[in-house]
């Protein structure tokens, strides 16, 4: 049986060691490349790798460097890229898929990495459980907000994030009274 050839792109040496050890315990996966930087990752030949497991935050210089690297690797022929991170922002998750990722795993769910590698290898685009719940909640918010005006949507989303009327007013440069009226209108529309 052929082993799935994995490249790990991770700038934290402790995480690199942990992930490598976790994956090497699997009989059907082998780590063939380890890259600690964007430059090292770009030197690897895509024909030598089946799946890439990449940290989203590669360096201090560029907070989401893995997103940009994902696009570059995709253009070089790497088609199966799994993003690995602590980020749980829906916009970042969706952007990673736009940039070529086939899955997105939160580092707290590291035990799911071997199965995600197998799914990517089999061309299954999937969402890890912690990511899918975030995206479903975001979609529910979007559906609720679809009946609202753009200004009301903005207020609604801030309220859903837990901001108070005063905080929303300050953030949007509006009066608390205006926010109060908008929240009342939003409540009526959503019902």
UniProtKB/TrEMBL annotation:
Record-listed 4-aspartylphosphate modification sites: 55
Name of the featured protein: LuxR family transcriptional regulator
Gene3D superfamilies: 3.40.50.2300, Winged helix-like DNA-binding domain superfamily/Winged helix DNA-binding domain (1.10.10.10)
Signal peptide: none
Any one GO cellular component localisation term in the record: cytoplasm
Residues covered by the Response regulatory domain: 5-122
Record localization: Cytoplasm
């Amino acid at each position: 049986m052929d082993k799935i050839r994995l490249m790990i792109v991770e700038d934290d040496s402790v995480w690199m060691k942990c992930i490598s050890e976790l994956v090497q315990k699997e009989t059907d996966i082998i780590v063939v490349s380890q890259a600690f930087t964007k430059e090292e990752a770009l030197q690897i030949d895509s024909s030598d790798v089946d799946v890439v497991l990449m940290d989203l935050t590669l360096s201090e210089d560029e907070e989401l460097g893995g997103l940009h690297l994902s696009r570059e690797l995709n253009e070089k022929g790497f088609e199966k890229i799994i993003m690995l991170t602590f980020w749980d922002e829906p916009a970042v998750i969706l952007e990673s898929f736009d940039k070529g990722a086939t899955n997105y795993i939160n580092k707290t769910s590291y035990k799911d990495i071997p199965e995600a590698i197998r799914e990517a290898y089999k061309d299954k685009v999937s969402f890890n459980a912690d990511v899918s719940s975030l995206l479903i909640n975001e979609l529910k918010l979007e559906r609720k907000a679809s009946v609202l005006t753009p200004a009301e949507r903005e207020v609604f989303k801030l309220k859903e994030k837990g901001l108070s009327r005063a905080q929303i007013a300050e953030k949007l440069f509006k009066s608390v009274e205006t926010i109060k009226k908008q929240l009342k209108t939003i409540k009526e529309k959503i019902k």
